[in-house]
């Protein structure tokens, strides 16, 4: 999938002007305000009405949420209805719900519970299962591990890797965390103020970053941690 051109503007001011390609798994990385969330919203057609966007796309599927595209939001605690049992948050057959829960390694007993009764990691598994219920070709992830503790964060990243290997969907992972990006994705696109700073193979960019901005992100995410694959 290739995004040949994506522009987002407000009152004639260009906020985002980028292009990138998702071969298998791409991390779109940048600090807060870099334009990564606007990029995601533009792809999902979720921009505020006052914003304008231009999208030139080359893909073998239609970029439509709920059909070929699925979305996992940042905070699992607010992604689900707190007054609805987990089993009733799905819109597929009971058999498929059970299969999805098994695929994300979620105990079926939890289907009878309400979201406030589950941990952050359990809720994120539910959200991922719901996202996969439509058999997407592209899974968009908006900082899906930010609200989780470090141990659970690692578990969820490993789960996503296993699911992708088995199901074959592409991943667009939006994050500010280089560490999580490196753990999940093969390629990276670093953006700042709505512009691409550099892009390429994850291991190569981490090993030899070209921009000072990328170096700063790496140093912030990998202090006292090994990052090379």
Task: Quickly list its features.
8 helices; 6-stranded mixed beta sheet; alpha/beta; Rossmann fold; 229 residues
Question: What is this structure, in a nutshell?
Answer:
This protein is an alpha/beta fold and 229 residues long.
| CATH T-level topology | Rossmann fold
Going across the major beta sheet, what is the strand order?
Answer: 5-6-7-3-8-9
* Helix-strand category: alpha/beta
What percent of the residues sit in helical stretches (DSSP H or I)? Answer: 25-40%
Spatial extent as radius of gyration:
18 Å
Helical element count?
8
The total tally of domains equals 1
Q: Oligomer, anyone?
A: single chain
Cα-to-Cα separation, first versus last residue: 25 Å
Instruction: Report the average pLDDT across residues.
Output: 91
Write the layout of secondary structure elements.
Blueprint: E1 2-10, E2 13-21, E3 25-29, H1 36-43, E4 52-58, E5 69-72, H2 76-79, H3 94-103, H4 120-132, E6 138-142, H5 150-167, E7 170-175, H6 178-184, E8 187-192, E9 195-201, H7 202-207, H8 212-221
Parallel strand pairs: 3-7, 3-8, 5-6, 6-7
Antiparallel strand pairs: 1-2, 1-4, 8-9
Helix pairs in contact: 3-4, 4-5
Molecular structure report:
The mean pLDDT is 91. Strands 5-6-7-3-8-9 form a six-stranded mixed beta sheet, sandwiched between helices. It has a three-stranded antiparallel beta sheet with strand order 2-1-4, covered by helices on one side. The relative contact order is 0.18. It has helices at 36-43, 76-79, 94-103, 120-132, 150-167, 178-184, 202-207, 212-221, and strands at 2-10, 13-21, 25-29, 52-58, 69-72, 138-142, 170-175, 187-192, 195-201. Helices cover 33% and strands 25% of the residues. It has 229 residues and is of the alpha/beta class. α3 (94-103) crosses α4 and α4 packs parallel to α5 (150-167).
